[in-house]
Automatic annotation (TrEMBL):
CDD domains: PBP2_DntR_NahR_LinR_like. Belongs to the LysR transcriptional regulatory family. PROSITE patterns: HTH_LYSR. GO terms for molecular function: DNA binding; DNA-binding transcription factor activity. It holds the Pfam family LysR_substrate. InterPro entries: LysR-type_TF, LysR_HTH_N, LysR_subst-bd, WH-like_DNA-bd_sf, WH_DNA-bd_sf. Keywords: DNA-binding, Transcription, Transcription regulation. PANTHER family: HTH-TYPE TRANSCRIPTIONAL REGULATOR LEUO-RELATED (PTHR30118), TRANSCRIPTIONAL REGULATORY PROTEIN (PTHR30118:SF15). This is LysR family transcriptional regulator. Residues 13-70 form the HTH lysR-type domain. It comes from the Bacteria.
Length: 315
């Protein structure tokens, strides 16, 4: 069996080494881990040496893309995270999180749209409230989000996630409506996009999973299925930020995107917004976290900061 207890951790291993392991497996870099832990690089290297000796495994291997965990390190991830979550969540929660003096890196699962919507304002708030903290963003496939949040590699996932894994906690931040973007050079579209034009033209859909049914605006097809309305999907992509450039070079394509993004895309000379001619219910932007970190002081503080930053965000 691979449990930490069977490895003799509780009776033989210095528990002060666990935060080093936890940080290294998240940031994959000794110098960044040292900065987050407020330790010297030599101290982190020495701790890693002790961990390697104890577990009889190199744990991390140097590669061109950073330090990659070995299979043994990945086996240890869940039990180490569990021990640390217990300590942080049940024993230290009363001490709270001192944002003004804290030095750590917060990880956020975000799409490219999420980075455009969330990051500028969140960075400003974080730098003001926690000047010693930094941010990391991760683009994670939908089926891996729960594991990434459970391991602590990311603290939160932000966005409008479809097919959210069961067991994650969530909180709505704000709601957004959709609007359609078209190429200005397409003269067949006037100031108003008709319903017939909408369903006759070819569409770009954004879906993290690559499946049409998981697209951000899939509700359009769901809501109009009984009204004999079915879109002609030409391209499905996981990236929002490439959509205006594709439409710029392909004037016959259109896309329906969140209004906030469309407003930014309309700064492209070739792109303009038109109201979507079918009913599209607003979609909610939420933050998600794993129950393991429900009472973690740092996670609680971050959730509160995110909520306060976007709570009054209305269209």
């Amino acid at each position: 069996m691979n449990s930490i207890h069977n490895a003799g951790l509780t009776s033989h291993l210095d528990l002060n080494l666990l935060p080093v392991f936890d940080t290294l497996i998240r940031v994959r870099n000794v110098s960044r881990a040292a900065e987050e832990l407020d330790m010297s690089q030599s101290a982190v290297s020495h701790a890693l040496k002790r961990l390697r000796s104890f577990f009889g495994d190199p744990l991390f291997l140097k590669t061109g893309s950073g330090m990659q965990p070995t299979p043994r390190a990945l086996e240890l991830l869940a039990p180490v995270s569990s021990v640390l979550a217990t300590v942080r969540g049940e024993l230290l929660v009363r001490e709270g999180f001192d944002a003004a003096s804290a030095r750590r890196s917060f990880g956020l699962c975000l799409t490219d749209m999420g980075e455009l919507i969330f990051l500028p304002r969140l960075i400003a708030q974080l730098r003001r409230a926690a000047p010693g903290c930094t941010l990391r963003t991760l683009q994670v496939p939908m089926h891996q989000i729960q594991a990434v949040l459970e391991s602590g590699e990311a603290d939160l996932a932000l966005g409008s996630l479809h097919s959210v894994p069961e067991g994650l906690f969530q909180q709505q931040l704000f709601a957004r409506s959709f609007v359609t973007i078209v190429n200005r050079s397409n003269r067949t579209i006037g100031e108003v996009l008709s319903r017939d034009q909408f369903f006759a033209m070819e569409h770009i859909l954004v879906s993290l999973s690559g499946r049409i049914e998981d697209a951000y605006d899939a509700v359009i097809d769901e809501g109009n299925a009984q009204g004999n309305g079915s879109r002609r999907v030409y391209l499905t992509t996981p990236h929002f930020l490439t959509v205006p450039m594709i439409i710029e070079q392909n004037p016959d394509l259109i896309a329906t995107v969140p209004r906030e993004l469309a407003t930014k895309f309309a700064t492209y000379k070739s792109i303009r917004m038109v109201e979507t001619p079918v009913r599209v219910p607003p979609f909610g932007i939420r933050q998600f976290w794993h129950p393991r970190f429900q009472h973690d002081a740092a996670n609680m503080w971050l959730r509160k900061l995110v909520k306060e930053t976007f709570d009054t965000d209305v269209e």
